[in-house]
Amino acid sequence: MKFLIISGNPKKDGLCFGVTAEIARGASENGADVEIITTEKVARCRVCGDGWGPCRNENYCSFGDDNGDNFNEIQQKIKQADALCFVTPVYWGEVTESMKSLMDRLRRCEFNMFGCNGEIAGKKTLLVAVPGGSGNGLLTCLQQMERFCQHTGAEIFDFVGVNKRNQGYKRVAAYEAAKQLIMNNE
Predict the structure, then answer these.
(1) What CA–CA distance (Å, rounded) separates 130 from 10?
(2) For residue 7, what is the enclosing H or E element?
(3) How many angstroms separate the Cα of 141 from the Cα of each of 67, 102, 128?
(4) Which helix (H) or strand (E) element contains residue 137?
(5) Beta-carbon neighbour count of residue 57 at 10 Å?
């Protein structure tokens, strides 16, 4: 089973990094082939032509990897994955800007006026939000990710919110959520 973790975390240490490592460990120790990718190179949607490019009907983005943007590469990895995890620090009650860019572009490529027709539809997905500092914004961030899943047809497996006060038991919960997702997806 291929398990893809998509991280909006721009840092290589800290709470979100540690939680991501626990998710990866939970999945890999239970037989999944785990890959972690980050979104820091994903540029925002350019809104081609009259507001829609080939994303609407052909399910790909015409603004692509030739500009150092790795959106199309990430989209291909998502298509190849059996299950997904979106994990992000919380910035102002939302996902990181690079994660938002990825989600916005994926939403355009994975949804059309007739309903979900993309590769994300039906994939079990773990959503993880990690606010630092005050811990505020956790719920609004998870709601934002939930709306993305509703628009793309991803099947939400679980929500996990980890902050500096609850990290002792929520890191364990993140590990267990990944473990159960793998065990229940085979």
Answers:
(1) 13
(2) strand 2-7
(3) 29, 15, 9
(4) none
(5) 10
3-state secondary structure of 59: coil
Strands (E), 23-176: 33-38, 83-89, 111-112, 115-116, 124-130, 155-161
What tens digit of pLDDT does each residue of 143-159 get? 999 999 998 999 999 99
Q: Which of 16-30, 110-124, 138-152 has the lowest mean pLDDT?
A: 110-124
Show the CA angle centred on residue 170, arms to residues 169 and 175, nearest 5°.
105
- Coil, helix or strand at residue 110: helix
Distances (CA, A) of 8 to 20, 99, 154, 163, 168: 10, 5, 18, 16, 22
The model's pTM is 0.92
